[in-house]
Amino acid sequence: MTPDPATLDRAVGAVVGSAVGDALGAPFEFGPEDAFSDRFPAAGGEMCGGGGWDPGEATDDTQMAVLVGESLLERGGLDPADVFRRFQRWAAAEPKDIGLQTEAVLTGGHPWDTAAARHFRDSRRAAGNGALMRAAPSAVYFARHGRTATLDAARRLSALTHGDPAAGEGTAVLHDLIRVALAGGDPLDAVPRALAAVRADQRERFAAVLAPDWHPDEATEFNGAVWPCLGSAVWALRTTASYEQAVRAAVDLGGDTDTVAAVTGALAGAVHGIGAVPERWTHVLHVPLPGFAGRVLRAPELTALARRLVSR
Ligand SMILES: [Mg+2]
Q1: Which residues belong to the annotated binding site for Mg(2+)?
Q2: pLDDT of 53-77, one tens digit each?
Q3: Structural contact between residues 3 and 11, judged by C-beta atoms closer than 8 angstroms
Q4: CA neighbours within 13 Å on the CB side: how many for 198?
């Protein structure tokens, strides 16, 4: 069954909106605050490329998101071993960018169901934002299965590369907020309920960054960590009135700009819909898939992916 036009519009907004945020933020990664607005005070030319990225080129965030989405469709549901195999095939093709911890887990030679846990046990460093960044397709897919299924899938997908439960809890919160937005609700109103579903020993840190008065300047970690990344995306949504303003605000935070903007774009795209994502950004958007026979997805293919993910 095809969902109603408004739900379709929001689902495409989440998937394409995340990819656009990723591509928009990529050239500004590890840069200072306000670099984006200083360079582009008015609309036009923002998909500039740089730092090794072509204009409109999406990074590992969207590449991995596409792999998750295609696995869900081709396997008819969550098949974690299949997702892990796709990730491994991609990682082996030497993508331009890959998270350090994700690379260690995918190339370490351990089985899908123990690799991330083993890495976390040995390193104790796994609370990165690398599972948050690829959430849009799975959030769209599982929304129709309801809240419990959404939270469970988010945690399992996160655990493929991130053994730290904090990564899984943050990814679960993001999936739940996108689920609410797809149904036409306000994800900001849904924050307290999402927090209530977070593991008790993880709840306090997420409550801090998701508080209505929290500002990214208050972050106690680099925004490559799960807490400030999620908090910054929700802050960007809360303090702006459009998709465009939200992702601009996200990139202007500096730091891990592609991922913060990818997470922001997923949320803001789900809220404002694909109609709010500027065409001057979508028309140059492209997502190479290293390891998959030179495939490159553009906005029409991402749109088709989102439509299939949201349709029964
Ligand atoms: Mg990236």
Answers
A1: 59-61, 256, 258-259
A2: 999 999 999 999 999 999 999 999 9
A3: yes
A4: 27
Residues with CB under 5 A from ligand 1 (ion): 59-61, 97, 258
Does residue 29 fall inside a structural domain? yes
In this prediction the pTM is 0.98
Under a CB-based contact definition with an 8 Å cutoff, are residues 256 and 129 in contact? yes
Q: Which amino acid is at 139?
A: A
**Nearest C-alpha neighbor of 274 from the set 12, 79, 1, 6:** 12
**244 in any annotated domain:** yes
- β-partners of residue 298 are 286
Q: Find the 23 Cα to ligand 1 centroid distance in Å.
A: 9
Q: What gap in Å lies between CA 10 and CA 183, rounded to an integer? A: 9
Annotated binding site: 59-61, 256, 258-259
Side-chain half-sphere CA neighbours of 291 within 13 A? 17
- Burial track 281-308 (b if 16+ CB lie within 10 A, e otherwise): bbebbbbbbbbbeeeebebeebbebbbb
* Total domains present in the chain: 1
Q: What is the pLDDT of residues 76-130, one digit of tens each?
A: 999 999 999 999 999 999 999 999 889 999 999 999 999 999 999 998 877 999 9
Which range marks the domain in which residue 213 is found? 5-39+53-311
Structural domain includes residue 105: yes
Asked if residue 44 belongs to a domain, the reply is no
